[in-house]
Amino acid sequence: MKKSHPGGAAGIRRQSLSEYDSKQFLKPFGVPVVEETFAASTDEALAAARHTGFPVVLKALGKKIMHKTESGLVHLHLGDDKSVASAAEVISKHAGDALEGFLVQPQIDAKREFVAGMFRDPEYGPVIMFGLGGIFTEALLDVAFRLAPLSVEDAEDLIDEIRSGALLGAFRGEAAADRAMLVKTLTGLSRAALEYPDVAEIDINPLLITRDGDVIAVDALVVKGDISRTKTHLPTVDPSVLGSLFHPKSVAFVGASSRPGKWGYTLLTNAIGGGYKGEIYLVNPSGGKIAGRRVYKSVMEINAKVDVAVVTIPAAKVPELIPQFKQKEISYMLLIASGFAETGQEGARAERQLVQEARKAGIYLIGPNTMGICNPHISFYCTGSHVRPEAGSVSMVAQSGNMGNQLLAFAELQGVGIRAFCGSGNEGMITIEDYLDAFEIDSLTGSVMLYVESVKNGRRFYESARRVGRKKPIVLLKGGQTAAGTKAASSHTGALASDSRVFNAVCRQAGIVKVDKPMDLLDLSAAFSSLPLPRGSRVAIMTLGGGWGVVAADLCEHYGLQVPELPDDLIVSIDQVLPPYWSRANPVDLVGENDPELPMKVIELLARWDGCDAVVNLGIVGRRHMLSRMAVSVQKADPDCPADFMETMLAILDDFENSYISHIVDLMESCQKPIVGVNMLRDEKDKSVYAFSGRQYKGLFFPTPEQAVKSLAKLWEYRRFLDREKR
After folding, report:
1. Do domains 239-528 and 531-726 have the same CATH topology?
2. Would you call 527 helix, strand, or coil by DSSP?
3. CATH of domain 112-225
4. Which of 207, 287, 343, 645 is the most buried (most CB within 10 A)?
5. Confidence class of residue 13 from pLDDT cuts 50, 70 and 90?
6. What is the H or E stretch that residue 62 is in?
7. Calpha distance 51→45 (Å, rounded)
8. Cα–Cα distance measured from residue 392 to residue 691, given in angstroms and rounded to the nearest whole number
9. Nearest alpha carbon to residue 388 among 543, 276, 516
10. What strands lie across the sheet with 380-383, from one edge to the other?
11. Predicted confidence (pLDDT) per residue in 452-467, tens digit
């Protein structure tokens, strides 16, 4: 049975409780509201002030009264009867008919002011907010958000996220804030949101921290709202159904074409050229032959089972296929065709009708307006771009065809193995949430990479992502971050929230590793599929030159990682390996030594050091490019140099680099620590990922120190999420 908070019947579109009623509503949820007295007249206010003890605060009270401070309806530091009476007179004059009475509170002197609250996001449901309050709330925008229900761990994380968190500790002679009470306040707001679904917003501002660290809510606003209208979401799709989509034994290309540049030609030739071993059928009303294969005039002519139909015909003719597909028992339609919801309202109506008919016929529709799918594990490449990444463990979904093409191309170039890819298009039937559920149960998916511009069902997206994230990392790039609109709201809580702020909070709470650039997406996919997770934030750095080590150390601090000092016993051990003029500190500078044994020995000492959780090595791999350039110069400058001398040196260096990378992989296996490298130089033939048969982990080398350090920081961010979820 739904509860109804005090202050009126449910169903009113917007109605604010008075400050007094708001606090009485919040009190049972553990919110530490200030002790106060309601006074109906000036005489009652005087009596209440004497009972409370001077000095006091006098406020106007009324359901229609908001933003009291700006309207001169709050008077502080009232020390006697005369000042209280004078303040009551001023308040009565300014408030007019909206005045229902006065509130008398004890004067609480506190320098630290925060804000807490709740609002209902139309996509994600109740959202809890915490941040810097008082007059600085709008000016500094130092606020953070989490979805309800809020666990204690979520509340702790919410408190830790704000930039002004130092004010919650011991500060300028004042005690640290009662953190347990802050957590209780935030989880109380969460419970209130869930138990009273007719409450649209809650705002506590300021939430004071006293000199002794006590937490006191001295002002509060509760707003009722009509939230009876809920968004209709698409039905969920059985995760096992999507698994079959990526393993077709036969594919029909409906709209096959012999003209290069046409989708019906590009997809067909990509599938054939990629080595797909299943049956391929071509369909075009003109019949004849394409690429030496028979062309059927209709799918009804195909005297065999078809698992997936790839449809590239014009949008207007697609509905005619539904009865044919139903009769042929074709379960999947990969709808490449555009001209649906992306074109406007009429296209959206056509899309909804098509989806409805497909659902009735038992057909699963991918798209419309998709750029295709691929599964390298069965050499099935059916995308608009002829890129063919190798088989691996990264499952990828992109809501943008161009972005999907780019990411697949990057994956192929850098050696990032792909489990499966889908361009989800308009998501008329199958949504990003459905793909997440499918990846959760797929044994070959080790990590998930997403390019997202919007979600169909925000609450389901969050719940699916948090559940999947406990098992497999999700790396996400969000498009359209700057287009967020501010919500119309009566409170600070709602007004300070934007689509991007709420989405970022969803990602943090669900454990999604969010990135800002396309290359970051690929870097993180390579890192998660190649390295063990760090157990902490301490990083050891080994470098061939001092400058790179300094840069890497600075980057570690910037991204929240530590660069610990080397202990004496480790220094003594490294002394046995390096010349006496080495750095004797972290970063460990190999002082440009070319002995191939030195980096082998030093990186093992660092990897086995209990005082670090990860190792970055800089400039060890990629030296062969410098040597090859040197060989060209030597051949021009010194005709007496043996022709095969430099070739022999290059071969030796190649052998060393292969052995060195293999040694790193062995160390990661035995020490369970990520070891990430940075190339000295690289060319277009170099990859980021180096795989070795039978090994759990892979060698990973980036072009820049920033990519290496940022990747480690994100691995540590995800590890912290997993640790929180286990508590």
Report:
1. yes
2. helix
3. 3.30.470.20
4. 207
5. low
6. none
7. 10
8. 10
9. 276
10. 380-383, 372-375, 418-423, 391-398, 447-452, 474-478, 513-515
11. 988 989 999 999 999 9
Instruction: Report the alpha-carbon angle 535-146-517, nearest 5.
Output: 65
* 531-726 CATH fold: Rossmann fold (3.40.50)
Sheet holding 699-702, edge to edge: 588-589, 539-543, 614-618, 675-678, 699-702, 689-690
Q: Which residue has the tokens 């309207």?
A: 71
pLDDT tens digits for range 647-682:
666 666 667 888 999 999 999 999 999 999 998 877
The answer to whether the CB of 226 falls within 8 A of the CB of 12 is: yes
Q: Which helix (H) or strand (E) holds 647?
A: helix 645-671
Helices 705-726, 546-558: axis angle to 10 degrees equals 40
SS3 171: strand
- The answer to whether 447 and 418 have CB atoms below 8 angstroms apart is no
Q: Residue 465 in contact with residue 511, Cβ under 8 Å?
A: yes
How many angstroms separate the CA atoms of 467 and 242, rounded?
18
Prediction pTM value: 0.88
Q: What is the CATH architecture of 239-528? A: 3-Layer(aba) Sandwich (3.40)
Dig out the tokens for 716 from the structure: 């540590």
Q: Which of 8, 5, 17, 10 is nearest to 490 (CA)?
A: 17
Q: How many helices (H) and strands (E) does the chain have?
A: 22, 31
Q: Any idea where the domains of the chain sit in the sequence? A: 35-106, 112-225, 239-528, 531-726
Cβ atoms of 158 and 118 closer than 8 Å = no
Do residues 470 and 464 touch, judged by C-beta distance below 8 A? Answer: no
376 contact partners, CB below 8 Å, separation of at least 6: 388, 389, 390, 391, 392, 417, 418, 419
| pLDDT at residue 633 in the model | 63
CA distance 682 to 388: 22
Write the burial class of residue 280 (CB in 10 Å: 0-12 exposed, 13-18 middle, 19+ buried): middle
Closest to 370 (Cα-Cα) out of 346, 342, 334: 334
CA-to-CA distance for 189 and 29, rounded, in angstroms?
7
The superfamily (CATH) of domain 35-106 is ATP-grasp fold, A domain (3.30.1490.20)
